[in-house]
Amino acid sequence: MPLTASIGEATINGLAYIGGLARLTGGAASAVFIEPLRGRQFRFSRAVHQAMAIGVEALPIVSLISFFVGTILALQGAYELRTLGALQLVASAVAISMTRELGPLMTAIVIIGRSGSSFAAEIGTMKVNEEIDALETMALEPVNFLVAPKFLAMILMAPLLTTWADFMGVLGGALFGVSNAGFTLGTYFTATLKALVLRDIVTGLIKSVMFGIVITAVGCQEGFLTGLGSEQVGRSTTSAVVKSIFLVVIVDLIFTAIFYFTAPR
Amino acid sequence: MATDLTPKSESSPETAEVAIDVKNLRVKYGEREILHGINFEIKAGETLVILGGSGSGKSTLLRTLVGLELPSSGELWIRGQNFGALSEEKRDEIRKKVGMSFQGGALFGSLSVGDNVALPLREHTRLDESTIEIVVRLKLDQVGLSGFENYMPAQLSGGMKKRAAIARALAMDPEILFFDEPSAGLDPIIAAGLDELILKLKKAFRMTIVVVTHELASAYLIADRMILLDKGVIVANGTVAELRASQQPRVRQFLDRVPEPEISEELDYLQMLTGETPPLRR
């Protein structure tokens, strides 16, 4: 196949994939927000169960990772700042980097590894065992039944986890700040709060929700697209993780650019 | 519960007579047509066995009958309604009145047996938990799995999984019950037990039952009528006696278990399976 045709085919397949994700997300969002208004009840118990798995069970690892990322940020920032004699700016450097970028992004990476892969594996295994077909024959629409609870749980848990990650990141920076930059815990936190504007935190949280939506859509989509046979489930899981990471970074770029160009002068 | 207790004579003539009517059904996967114009009907209360070899299209036919595949042309009438012309909601209404037992059981691995059977009741009815518990116990009892409510599917043997799947299919008191290869992978004794169960359901509830299988012994036992599918067309349609007496070559080959002649060319093998002339012939 000539190169142009390959590129064209890849582009069309890519766009079709994104379209599939959009449809899945739309279906899930409709099930969560619109259907209950039409009288079709939404089972919150399933969403709560998912929220436990996505959010609560991720707390230990998110805490550890964010804490260390905060320390790393402080170390890297201080490296330059001390040559400028501006070491006391390390608190604001950590705060802004965490809330605007690394809090949402690192949390998303953890969620991809834990939840994105598990969505793909769970739904993929169900597909291989004909359980998805069974749901359809029982008039239980798979998107309503399987995806919508995950969707709701994710859009609640992603920003909450990110907020926690931001806090732990600041704490990690404080570890460096207190030991090597002449701060006390109190002055470090004061400096942090002074540096942060609401916009920093809000843009980070918006991004985290967007990341969460992408991760849920890709994980579930890969699950539904699983071919027959157990080795296909492994393939779907890998594919879900890789595609999620890629798409999260793209979405990060898009939203960061949007926030940059819409920033008040 | 959901059992319809009206005597058959009070329902409208069409639904009392014909449960499923298939007219000129054609089904495609992508570009390939698998079923080439299928015509048959199933009377209410009848047990139909769909026989066929690999590649005959019987799984596709079953999937289309339960609504998992949409035909590319032709009509499927279930309970007097044209399935293809219905809205999704009306189709769901029909799906609730139809039960399907999949080849591997397709039990939901994350739920216990009891929760599996209870699922359609919890989702589609407003019955309270204690009533649902009673119904679940009843259904499990009917399939010979009393007391297994709290087992997880992974803890069950193959035969037990199939029984649990049947219990789940029976949960909403369906009018039509579909079985995909009920005896597949089971030893003859367990398979015979399942045949017994199907016969029991047939007698007790007068359900319309459609079974896809290639196990002839089971088929002879449970069928009122049989259909033989070959390469996407029906080559025989009649009672068990009629088919056993048929002199048609394909029917005789299937029923007498005559193997195909050895084929070593891949394209020939594909052609034998599907009846199509492959695109690339030297």
Summarize the structure.
The complex is a heterodimer of chains A (265) and B (282). Chain A has 265 residues and is mainly α.
Notable features of this structure?
heterodimer, A: 265 residues, mainly alpha, 9 helices, B: 282 residues, alpha/beta, six-stranded mixed sheet, four-stranded antiparallel sheet, 11 helices, 10 strands, 38% helix, 23% strand, globular, disordered N terminus
Secondary-structure map:
The complex is a heterodimer of chains A (265) and B (282).
Chain A (H helix, E strand, L loop, with lengths): L2 H32 L9 H11 L4 H23 L8 H39 L2 H7 L4 H39 L4 H11 L2 H27 L5 H32 L4
Chain B lengths: L12 H5 E12 L2 E12 L3 E6 L5 H8 L7 E6 L2 E2 L5 H9 L1 E4 L11 H12 L4 H14 L15 H13 L5 E5 L7 H18 L2 E6 L2 H7 L2 E6 L2 E7 H6 L3 H7 L10 H9 L8
Parallel strand pairs in B: 3-8, 3-9, 6-7, 7-8
Antiparallel strand pairs in B: 1-2, 1-4, 4-5, 9-10
Characterise the protein shown here.
The complex is a heterodimer of chains A (265) and B (282). With 265 residues, chain A is mainly alpha-helical. Chain A has one domain (11-260). Chain A has helices spanning 3-34, 44-54, 59-81, 90-128, 131-137, 142-180, 185-195, 198-224, 230-261. In chain A, α4 runs antiparallel to α9 (230-261). Chain A starts with a helix and ends with a helix. The mean pLDDT of chain A is 93. Chain B starts with 12 loop residues before the first helix and ends in an 8-residue tail after the last helix. The longest helix of chain B has 18 residues, at 188-205. Residues 1-15 of chain B have low confidence and may be disordered. Chain B is built from eleven helices and ten strands. Chain B has a domain at 104-173. Chain B has helices at residues 13-17, 58-65, 88-96, 113-124, 129-142, 158-170, 188-205, 216-222, 240-245, 249-255, 266-274, and strands spanning 18-29, 32-43, 47-52, 73-78, 81-82, 98-101, 176-180, 208-213, 225-230, 233-239. Chain B is of the alpha/beta class and 282 residues long. Classes of the chains: A mainly alpha (265), B alpha/beta (282). Chains A and B meet through α4 and α5 of A and α3, β6 and α4 of B.
